[in-house]
Amino acid sequence: MHVAIPLYPRYTALDAVGPYTVLAFAPGNTVTFVAARPGEVLDDQGGLTLTATKSYADLPYPDVIVVPGGPGTAEALNDPALIEWITVAHERTRWTTSVCSGSFLLGAAGLLKGRRATSHWGWVEHLSGFGAQPVNERVVIDDKIITAAGVSAGIDMALTVLARMTDVATAQTVQLAMEYDPQPPFDAGSPRTAPAGIAERALGLIG
What is the distance between the alpha carbons of residues 201 and 207, in angstroms, rounded to a whole number? Predict the structure, then answer.
């Protein structure tokens, strides 16, 4: 199973690296970072690069695509090479997935019309502009399109995909190998539970 993760300037690193770690752990999988041309691509913090080892043209039809989000999504919506690659690749994927605002790129590719989809809580409602039905859930499955909420939800999404790609026991094995056993120190991971004023401060960090 070949998984492709497209990179574009100012992606959020965990959106890409979380699913990469889950899916690359599984036996028999190949996970490749792709971009318009091979080379390093800088993340949204300006201090970390991932290397795209293949171009879009080199890998037109992967089995799975994982589209990360990040502040660079706004610019990426106007990247015809990326949008066309998503559109064409989706024709043959087994699963087309996204993390956080990566779902907006699926929307720009025309893939979310009439579908349930999610994104980061701060922007999920705007998916309706692409004809999608916004859903405030951590992972949303609609046929072969699987979208994840903000950043860390990409790990949950990747485990969900892995269970369908192989079986539940394999996904559980990878989860345990990663010791993915979230026990956050604060109950502030959702605007529903965060203390007053925290949501506004959080949006200020990523807006």
Answer: 10
From 86, 176, 201, 96, select the one nearest 140 (Cα to Cα).
Answer: 96
199-to-152, 188, 196, 204, 205 alpha-carbon distances in Å: 17, 9, 7, 9, 10
pLDDT tens track for 160-191: 999 999 999 999 999 999 999 999 999 999 99
Instruction: Tell me the DSSP string of 106-139.
Output: HHHTT--TT-EE---TTTGGGGGGGT-EE--SSE
Which are the catalytic amino acids?
Answer: 100
Task: Report d(CA 90, CA 95) in Å as an integer.
Answer: 8
- The residue among 133, 74, 78, 67 whose CA lies nearest residue 100 is 67
Give backbone dihedrals phi and psi of 14, rounded to 5 degrees, phi first: -65, -30
Residue 116 C-beta-side C-alpha neighbours within 13 Å: 11
Closest CA relative to residue 6, chosen from 134, 116, 93, 128: 93
**Angle at the Cα of 109 from the Cα atoms of 69 and 171, rounded to 5 degrees:** 55
pLDDT at residue 33 greater than cutoff 90? yes
pTM: 0.96
Residue 100 near residue 147 (C-beta atoms within 8 A): no
